Amino acid sequence: MSSQQIIQPVVDLLGQPDGPRERQLIWGEQVTVEGEKGGWSQVIAAKDGYTGYVPNVALGAPAPTTHWVSALATHVYTQPDFKSADLRSLSFGSRVQVLSQGDRFTETSEGFIPSSHLSPLETQMTDPVAVAEVFLGTPYLWGGNSRLGIDCSGLVQASLLACGIPCPGDSGPQERALGNYASPKGSNYLRGDLLFWKGHVAFVRDSETLIHANAFHMAVAVEPLQPAIDRILAQGDGPVTAHKRLT
User: Which positions fall inside the NlpC/P60 domain (predicted)?
Assistant: First the structure.
């Protein structure tokens, strides 16, 4: 086994070579390579232990990372000038190595990034719902983990990891791992609570609304809380299976 690093802005993590997408990994994430075959590597994601396959070209030697992209997305430029050529776009949560910092642009090992779009690795946000709100309007993508597309569990994971809270990648393990059961169903909804259905998860935004990435809106959206619960039940996806509160 060996340690490697993701060197593509977004790469699908597949259940098997050339198989369906299970999740995604983004620039700078660390993985452990368990084996290689036919241009594919079987990897374990450091952030959550998720196992899958990525193409070998998506991996590079591990390098120190010092900062993370705390804007919804950013561009990497060839020069410290917004009119210079951009090399790639990086999503929220991507990790980079800073070489020198300026007022407007920061030099990284990959190019120049607007300084306001980066935060030191040790910087943690404090409100997962506020992080989720940053993603409002992001297209829904099954198994997605980036600004280009995200699903319900990807949104919850990105929001919690940004606040320093460990989080699995899928809604089922999230339901089992996160928080304590809250008050009886239908009462005392607080910001940051998690509502689970079979195969779905949403944040309570306040006592009357929730925020989630969902296939009904095909986007990250804010929705009235009880009407959303009623809609999901009516469309055949079942009742809320758990109301959990992070502690």
Answer: 122-247
Q: Is the overall model pTM greater than 0.90, yes or no?
A: yes
- pLDDT score, position 184: 57
How deeply is 232 buried, as exposed, middle or buried, from its count of CB atoms within 10 A (0-12, 13-18, 19+)?
buried
Exposed, middle or buried by CB within 10 Å (0-12, 13-18, 19+), for 181? exposed
Query: CATH 2.30.30.40 occupies which residues in the chain?
Result: 2-60
Residue 220 has pLDDT above 80, yes or no: yes
**Structure tokens of 189?**
């909804």
User: Quick one: tokens of 67?
Assistant: 């900062």
Label residues 68-95 b or e (16+ Cβ within 10 Å = b): bbbbbbbbbbeebeeeeeeeebbbbbbb
Fold of 67-120: SH3 type barrels. (2.30.30)
Res 186: pLDDT: 52
Query: Which CATH code of 3.20.20.10, 3.30.420.140, 3.90.1720.10, 3.75.10.20 fits the domain covering 128-245?
Result: 3.90.1720.10
Nearest to 71 by CA among 142, 122, 147: 147
Q: What is the DSSP string of 7-31?
A: -SSEEEEESSTT--EEEEEETT-EE
